Protein: C-type lectin domain-containing protein
Organism: Cyprinus carpio
Amino acid sequence: MKPTVTVFIFLSLFGLNFSLYRKHIFVNEIMTWENAQKYCRKHHDDLSTVSKEEAQQLSTNPENNNAHFWIGLHMISNNLENWSWSGGEDQKIDYWDIRQPNDIAEQCGCVRRNTAKLHNVVCSLPLPFYCMEVFVPILVHQNKTWDESLNYCRQNYIDLVSLSSQINMEGVINNTITSQTAYVWTGLRFMVGHWFWVSGDNLQYKAWSTVGDPQCPARNLHCGALDRSRNIWQPKDCEEKLNFVCLRKP
Ligand SMILES: *[C@@H]1O[C@H](CO)[C@@H](O)[C@H](O)[C@H]1NC(C)=O
Ligand SMILES: *[C@@H]1O[C@H](CO)[C@@H](O)[C@H](O)[C@H]1NC(C)=O
Ligand SMILES: *[C@@H]1O[C@H](CO)[C@@H](O)[C@H](O)[C@H]1NC(C)=O
């Protein structure tokens, strides 16, 4: 049976000194931890590595009705104190729920949705899970129109960047310090009556310069740029030539 993948995507940026994007994809199919890991490694990068903030974000996913979901956490060498991530990241594991981890036989880690905290459970438990794809934002020091920027990113890297959370914004802003332009292009576009991320990411988080979406942007203001000094999005003329931020594989 082919698992159904719900495309409910969060883009979370983490890593304190380097900007690493983790895109989490919810797989609404129940599997054991090992099978979930196999599935993620086949179709994406790995089972999700999840920080405390990401766990909170993922726990609010309305597509998930299960009380628990798998992430890439597992016990190492039968030691209750020794856990690591399937993807090998050096992400802190510091948000266990009270009295967890609590049983040496429970060697896989999941998130309990109503507390957004870690629990250890037996690995054979069938649970839905999150897979991740990992990217790094890269500032391109070239002045291009929005369309040219999109083409450049898709030809040379993966896509124009999405800024779908506060932490994500901060990471990109940190990444654009050397930009030659005050604004940089993002993957934000207005077409047939609404704004969207060209990567298909969720547009729940918003940081527009005006309150709410610019519902009816002027005809020539249909592309979204990041204002690096004010940390906000600004609708701009797509023909303006700006530096821009792409996402690449690490
Ligand atoms: C945790 O497991 C790794 C890999 O097996 C091992 O190298 C390390 O010494 C272990 N750490 C502790 C505290 O047991
Ligand atoms: C891009 O535009 C900025 C501002 O107009 C300018 O300072 C910079 O030199 C330009 N960069 C390139 C590569 O042409
Ligand atoms: C961005 O840079 C600031 C200042 O150096 C730092 O405090 C913050 O943690 C960085 N944010 C991210 C997401 O990298």
